[in-house]
């Protein structure tokens, strides 16, 4: 009975693992270099040529946190400006205001009315449902002497769809 030697096959496998590991390390180094290149000079605390990999990760993490904070500040500023525009709009235009936005099978409805000019919210929902949509989400808020209603709806059937102009006309008739 003849026994096969395993040492020949094992050496080949070992070389393949070393080669795979070498390529993996090269790929990781390339990714780390790319990460380092994305961080702006103004954000660096250590010179780029002296950075260790750990320093590189720390600076990238810090930069990402800075970007997140900036995004939050910009979102807050946008929200503030949007609410100012909305308040300016309601002060300049007589109440009630009806806006209907249509995109694909979705319908977004914004109703702005005075506190003293109320309407039955149930009737608004009935109009939306009669026109072939179902209310997915509805909310309201009171700012000063105005009530803001936001209604998100979706077409019940994709074949039938929604006719935004018809919904707008019916809501305008209902509220006025």
TrEMBL record:
GO molecular function term, any single one: protein dimerization activity
Keyword annotations: Coiled coil, Transcription, Transcription regulation
Cross-referenced PROSITE patterns: BHLH (PS50888)
GO CC field: RNA polymerase II transcription regulator complex
Segments crossing the lipid bilayer: none
Coiled coil: 57-84
Domain spans labelled BHLH: 12-67
Descriptive protein name: Transcription factor bHLH36
Organism in which the protein naturally occurs: Musa troglodytarum
Lineage: Eukaryota, Viridiplantae, Streptophyta, Embryophyta, Tracheophyta
